[in-house]
Amino acid sequence: MSITLKDVEHIANLSRLTLTDDEKVKMTETLGKILNFAGELQELDVANIAPTTHSMPLQNVLREDAARQWLTQDEALSHAPDQSNGQFRVPAVMEG
User: What pTM was computed for the model?
Assistant: First the structure.
């Protein structure tokens, strides 16, 4: 499958990207190479290959789920530079 300059311009428009003429040419070449590689992958015979979710044969790699002692609310807030009503106070991140 090949990709044209018009295709790249359409994709850039959908992506709300402004590309220079040089960038459009480069993207046409790059996307063309990606599509060609995807085409090569489509030609591979994978009929006898089992589907996998991971490249390594890993089993559960998570730690044992066990209860642990955590900080109390007072301990957590003891080093807070600013607190109110049992909560950390931080600067506003959104204008009201």
Answer: 0.50
